Amino acid sequence: MKATAKPITLMTATGLFAAMITLMTAYIFHIPYGANGGYVHFGDALIYLAAVLLPHPYALAAAAIGGGLADLLTAPAWAPATIIIKMLITLPFTSKNDKILSGRNILAPFLAAPICIAGYYLAEGLMFGSFASAAASAIGNVIQSAGSAVIFLIAAKALERLPGFFRQI
Q1: What is the mean pLDDT of the chain?
Q2: Could you point out which of 25, 50, 76, 147 has its C-alpha 20 to 30 Å from the C-alpha of 113?
Q3: Is 0.70 surpassed by the pTM of this model?
Q4: CA nearest 104: which of 93, 113, 90?
Q5: If DSSP codes are grouped into helix, strand and coil, which group holds residue 40?
């Protein structure tokens, strides 16, 4: 493989993850809840996979672009907060192990969940001027984070069974 192929491969994978994150967040298994425009989705599971399969700068970009585009398409006021929060939830993961489901990556979704919950709590409180209403909608973020963790763990286990998959990217 040429030296230029790796960055091109990483940029291509980043773009594909961003597109999948956008679609999964905004439209596929998109379940609205509450009065504030919130919704439960499984786009975070793809953010977690990107964080495991891509080096951090690329995972940060895929999360920010994918989450940001989803919000621009469905709830534009949330896009700035989402861009920041989705980048932050990639940080507990590592792509530096030989396995997708390393000890750190098994624990990481449970570390990412409080980041997501606290981030949206803070954003909603600031946006709407009420932290009481933000607390009421936090349950949706808990459900979303839990669902995304389960989907991530199932998908990661399936991907680990594919010979050589992890080192393809």
Answers
A1: 89
A2: 76
A3: yes
A4: 93
A5: strand
